[in-house]
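Batch 3, record 17
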Amino acid sequence: MRSIELRILIPILIIIVFSLTVVGFTSYYGSYRIIQDLVSRFPESSAYIDDEFITNRLFDLQKYTILVAIIAILASSQLTIFFAYSLVLPIKKFAAACDELAKGNFNAKVDYRRNDEIGILKNAFNAMAEKLKKYIDDVLRLTELNQKILNGINYGILLFSKDHKILLSNKAANNIFETSPSLSEWAKDFIREYPEGTIPSKGMAKWPSSGGMTKFIQYEVTPTGENFILCFSDVTEEEKLKHKMEHINRLASIGEMSAALAHEIRNPLQGIQSCFQVLESLNLPGTNETSVELFSAIYREIDRINRIITSLLHYARPSEPMPARVSLKRTVEEIRPFIVPLLKEKALDLRCSLPEGSDEVYIDPNHLKQILMNLITNAIRASRQGGFINVSLHQTFDETVICVRDKGIGIPKQHLSRIFTPFFTTFPGGTGLGLCVVQSLTIKNRGRIWIESTEDSGTSVYLAFPSSFSHKMSENVD
Amino acid sequence: MNGPFLSMIFFFIYTILMIYSARSGFYDTYSVEDFFVAGRSLNTFFSTATFLATWFSAASILGLGGYIYIYGLSGVIYSIFPWFSGAILLVLLSRRLRKEYSLFTYPEFFSLRYNSKIMQICVALIMIFSYIFYITMQIKGFGLVMSMLLNIPYTAAIFLVYLYILYTTFGGLFSVVKTDTVNAFIIFASFLAFGTYIILQNGGISNIIHQADLLDAPPIFGSEIKTPPGGLLDIFCKGLQPPAYLLTSFFGWGLGLAANPQYVIRIVSAKDTATAKKMIIFAVFLLSIIYTFIVFGALGLRVLIPTSPPVNNVDEIIPTLLNRISPAYLNGIILVSIIAASVSTANSQLLLIATSFTYDILKNLRKEIREEEMLNLNRITIAVAGTLSLLLSFNPPKSLIEFGGNIWGIFSSSTFIPLYAGVFLKNSTRAAEASFTSGLITYLVFLLLQTLTKITILSNIHPGLLGFTASLAAFWAVEWRSKRAKH
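Prediction for the assembled complex:
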């Protein structure tokens, strides 16, 4: 880059050097011609004119010419540089500020004192930089706002061009791609194929992902001039939930039917039991031991059917809850007598780990008893000889969480997904309705239930109930 | 070709080089930091070049050369050894100074470290006075040589060097550094040429040593004292140079160099600590090469011309003899190298005068000085101080090397202990102020005694020894007292 200073300085220096060279050469050549002329005109006086004297005089002349030239050059250079510097420095500062501005530093300012055109230029530049900074700040603020809006949306947004380039993506899209790389592949594939016109602009896409699962992606494309906006979201979970809901609805229908059926079975069953009791009371002669055993076996089976029906009815038609503040410790103590024989059988200890101050749960007391009975009974069944079962409680921000933990055999991983299915049991002689009843009552009391279990290490059942007094129990959660 | 005319041609070329290099430095300067410390951005090449060129002054060439011509190798003990010892101390200083302080000027250290504005102003004043005299010495040295070799009036010669010094300083440290780089090359090449020529004239170094060992002539025509045989190769010149003075000169030359503001500023202006260290190490290596050639050149000159024609002072010996025996081109080269050495030292000192005056004195009196105003004030100060030195050089001091020694002695006696203790120890402000004051006063009083009484015992001791001892004693005493008071 040629500096403005060089445009000023070099010509001046060339002029000075050239002028001085000309002066020097002229003085030298002129002196030489003068002496030659002198020698030729006065040959008779050459005896008095010494050659060396003339040469030395000439050299002296040259020496002083150069000395004067050096001093002149130094002095004039100094003056020239000062002159050029006064012009160049503000321009250099100006150029540096422009350079800073070009690099994106909008705080760049020119700082020098001038009252001439360069001063006007400085003021204009500073005003312009100020305005530019304001505009850029506005643009940045808007961009930031847009970005915030984009990032606030919980479905993925991609802006892509016709030549398959992604121009912009929001946070949700990036998160989806990070957590599920297969969706990133889908998006690339989609962007590559969409401009060809082979894909509809709205719909649901299925995409195979790792682990043999299928991902469901809901998408919509909006053209914007040369580009397209693709809005998409991973609806795999919703799809699963939908399928689950359908399954639950079917189960609910079956449950309703089963409840009706159970209700219908109960009366004849009572009748059959009464008939057998009559037959037994007749005390016919020849009644032998076999008859007695058969009668008691009939009563046992009738009783078992009755229990199943009762559980089924509890599960299918739980009573409406009447919530109140219930002490968990007191409830555990109330049910303890019923489960002591079972505990003693396996030499187990039932412990309560409750926080200081409050151990209350907002729930129907009878439901809580039923829930705890079922869970503790399950825990006893799953436990080995010795050890303990722990009932604990802790408060979160808006929930009270109860945990029933045992150190028993645990639930195999493959069974975990089926534990709430009616009639599914891993205990010999179990009805497979205990946990279903617990789940049904928990939901009825607006709670949540989840289970953590490791095979051979034990199981923890968590129940979370709202702490709030204001929740209405009128809503039924199916 | 006529010798003076050829020298003028060399001069003309040198002028063009100076104009170009100073100009490019001038336009690198945007801020006070650029002007004072070259934006703390100098790389190893530029740092080494400026360190070397600043180190080399007229005293190094004329004074040392003349001294070795008369007293032989004792000159190495008297000056070169102390100088190099000082350089080692500078290496030790460089790391912590760079790490812990961001200085603009040398006196600012005393304000930052000891929070003492008084000390800052006093050090600035010492620098201004010392350097004005030292620049005078440089101008004089060059003026003498130029008027002798070119056969031009002394006034014209000193006016020329004055212009060179002003021109190369106006642009700030960038200008000084860029011209120093050119000067360093000229100094290095010309003294290699000088040494080589004299060695060849003598038929080799071994021959110089052999002949110098036998020499027993008076060094200067009309001198009553003869150089004793073997004296030129003896470190005490067979009794002509008292050991006490030679050994105590370390406290003037060595410690003075270690506390010299010029080198502290060179450390500060290097781009980082590693560059500052490399600068000193490389420069000392190159200097040892140059000194080797100067020592053998001066000894060889003594062997070639055992007795110099009468001269006014020691500084005139080398140019006078060179003018007699060396070819015109070598005279021209040596002449340019002498101006290079003078300009490179003087411009650095002139810049320090200006920065100390504006930053350490004026800024403490007037709080608000705008950057542009500060730069202009510095340039005005440069012009004033330069002109003052020019005026003083019309009636210059007697011996360059002794005068130089006095200036370094002032720094070793006053600022050495506060500077090094400030960097390496956790001493108090009062100890530093006491050390500074007592060292300076002792040095000046002893120098005055030496000058006025002319007692032999006193003149055989370098005043730097007493100044430094007083400074150290005062420092230690005040520190000990303050520690006792704490206990």
